[in-house]
Amino acid sequence: MRKRLPLIQKVNKAALLGLCLVASFFYRFNSKYRNIWLVCERGYEAGDNGYSFFKYLCQNHPEIHAFYLMDYSNQQDFNKVNSIGEVIQYGSFKHKILFILAKYLVTAHRGTIEPWNYQQYKRFCGFLSKNQKYIFLQHGITKDDVSNVLGRKQTSFDLFITGAKPEFDYISSTFGYHNGEVVYTGFARFDDLHSFKIKKQILFMPTWRKKLAWSNISDRAEMFKNTDYFRYYQSLLSNEELIRVLNQSGYQLVFYPHHEMQQFVDCFSTNAEHILIGNKERFDVQTLLKESSVLITDYSSVFFDFGYMGKPVVYYQFDSVDFFQTHYKRGYFSYQSDGFGPVFSEEQEIIDYIKFLVNSNFQIEDKYRQRIERFFTLKDQNNCERIFQSIIQLK
Fold first, then answer.
1. Which domains does the chain have, with CATH numbers?
2. How far apart are alpha carbons 168 and 376 in whole angstroms?
3. Which GO terms describe its molecular function (predicted)?
4. Which of 97, 150, 339, 386 is the most buried (most CB within 10 A)?
5. For the packed helices 5-27 and 93-101, what is the interaxial angle rounded to 10 degrees?
6. What is the tens place of the pLDDT at every residue in 27-83?
7. Residue 86 in 3-state DSSP?
């Protein structure tokens, strides 16, 4: 019986695909389902480039038949998207039908918008949607060498959106894409980073570690507590001098680990009045980025958004050798010569620099401001418009 299971699963998948193909034929008679723009992020959220671009479509091009894919169980994000346009349950039968019918597939994450393996789908059923275009909005600016994941041989992207000029130069020259398949438009969400109110808040947002997030160890929490990742960050959160600085200055620190590390967020603790441990149910990343005065991170690409807003960034990289050996390969970006702030490996250096920023009213240093200006040669609220124009020009 076990040997027959894979065959049964394949038959069921083929039957479902066949049913979707038949249903899509009848959907084509409804003008609402012609020339569809299907937009997605991770499939259960709306707060990134996908949502920003969908909002732009709904507000500026109501003539376009645009649909946003997400799980209805995320009621907060569902209500937000549903108030501006039509939402389709992620993974539903209708998702699969609209995927077949869509003229444009627009996504912030690879491998989420497609209900089937896209390359196999195109191979066997591509004749049904031969003019379909796949647009990759990206989630964060690419700074490391991830050509083994996002290179042209590994993807089916017809258009690869970049958020900065050095990123565009790097991807278009080293990832194997043809001329015109990579464009520098700026990220869709950058349109919303020009108006914000800053609170007395420090955002501490480290990125993830592949070997921890994808560990197969049964007692993952216990494993995690024995890692340098936990020990270093818990130590900083418990630092008496940091707590004293926060109390005296009136600033609050929000510790918000990367999405992939949220599974371990309950391992961290604090008794400090001015330190909060942030989880994804309670906090919205874009709101945190806009309202915070300074960002402490290790390697998270959210520092690009923060720098774009002209606010100071601090890098805490206690494990850089291990990180670039086991997580990502170095790309074009050097934290030392291109970074938007100082790079530290010791806890005390972080404390000292926070005190420096408090005393300077959290003003970004000139040398870092100049680096940011060189990095973002486009800085306006026309990013979504440029993306839109790039899409409709696809042949």
1. 17-192+381-392 (3.40.50.11820), 201-375 (3.40.50.12580)
2. 11
3. CDP-glycerol glycerophosphotransferase activity
4. 97
5. 60
6. 888 889 999 999 999 999 999 999 999 999 999 999 999 999 999 999 999 999 999
7. strand
